[in-house]
């Protein structure tokens, strides 16, 4: 995708899910697996006023997957890298504290696994509404998703009126 050889099918999915909320996408960049550039872009988006930063790609455990490192290098507090949810086990959630200026704020940074691109419902669908409501998601909250954390890919999806992600 970065080199133009692969069509970007991830961005339209993310934009579609974000459009369900009163939100504005203020920036979008595409990089290869260069953690330094990804870190700089995350910090740039935060400086531009982003309340949520969504990173896609590079979330696996392969040596060339640098997105978790890039997020960690922002100085954000990592809540969890991994969630007991399928699809979405390689999800990363972090919070970055903006302390300078008159308006301190907390920015959510999410690293999304590739499944968000092709699976109808994933960890992103479970966490995004809480993030958009400024409801802090904790490691315990993510762990509780383990009960009911398997999307059954029902022939007719009734999400959110199903057991997916309901926890205990």
Write the layout of secondary structure elements.
Blueprint (H helix, E strand, L loop, with lengths): L9 H9 L16 H13 L4 E5 L10 H6 L4 E5 L10 E7 L6 E8 L2 H4 L4 H10 L6 H6 L24
Parallel strand pairs: 1-4
Antiparallel strand pairs: 2-3, 3-4
Gyration radius, in Å? 16 Å
Outline: globular
Structural class: alpha+beta
Q: What summary fits the major beta sheet?
A: 4 strands, mixed
How helix-rich are the residues, as a percent range? 25-40%
Strand content: 5-15%
Mean pLDDT, as a whole number?
92
Distance between the termini: 40 Å
- SSE pattern: HHEHEEEHHH
Structure commentary:
- The model has no long low-confidence stretch (mean pLDDT 92).
- It contains six helices and four strands; from the N terminus they run H-H-E-H-E-E-E-H-H-H.
- The longest helix is centred in the N-terminal third of the chain and has 13 residues.
- 29% of the residues lie in helices and 15% in strands.
- The chain is globular.
- With 168 residues, the protein is α+β, with helices and mostly antiparallel strands.
- It has a four-stranded mixed sheet, sandwiched between helices.
